[in-house]
Each structure stands twice: as structure tokens, then as C-alpha cells.
Amino acid sequence: MMGVKGIKEKLWLPPPIDTNIAEREESERRSLGIDPLPLTWEDRKKAIFSDEGKPIREYFGEDLISSIVKVHEADINHFAEKTLEEEVSILFEKY
Q1: How many separate domains does the chain show?
Q2: φ and ψ at 36, to 5 degrees?
Q3: Which of 29, 59, 60, 85 is most exposed by smallest CB count within 10 Å?
Q4: What is residue 20's three-state secondary structure?
């Protein structure tokens, strides 16, 4: 999706990085413009609905993104009172 946006807008890729980014210090990654992905659900939700998430929302549509968020929140609420073993068992049977 972002690739399509880049082609349409004739954007250029940043220079390649030929080292293992995971082995670099966070400050070094940030100086290269590499930000960490959100780790929590709240941070992911903020990101998807921020200006930075706009291309994703435009590509997939606000309705689909809102539906995905609602389903994920329902899953979180459903499993909130379950033990890890119960959650694994339910998901194993489901998938």
C-alpha cells in the first residue's frame, strides 16, 4: 500500500541500511529515521488514527479500519478474564 503511494507520488526510498538494525542503539536507529513500532494496543490504535496512519486508512477505508479495531477490542475484552491456558485453548480450537 505504501509502495503504491510512493509510485503514484514518485517518492524515493531512503538509502539501504546494510547492518542489523536490532543491534544498533535506539538513538542511532532514531537518527536514521527508524522509529520503533507501537508495542501496546493503545499505542497501535493512536498510530492508526494519527496523521501518520492516514495513508493506511485511505487505502483500506475508514469503515474497514474501524471494524478491525472493534473486533480487536472485542477480543481483548473477551480474553481479559481468561487465563493464558484458556486463551490458548480457545484460540487453538478456533484456528
Answers
A1: 1
A2: -70, 150
A3: 85
A4: coil
Question: At which residue does the C-alpha cell 491456558 appear?
Answer: 85
pLDDT tens profile 1-60: 567 778 888 888 888 888 898 899 999 998 888 888 899 999 999 999 999 899 889 889
At 62, list the grid cell: 475508514
Phi then psi for residue 35, to 5 deg, are -95, 145
Backbone angles phi, psi at 38, to 5 degrees: -60, 140
Query: 0.70 cut: is pTM over it?
Result: no
Q: Which three cell numbers stand for residue 24?
A: 544498533
Q: How far is CA 80 from CA 50, 76, 87, in A?
A: 26, 6, 9
Domain containing 25 equals 2-94
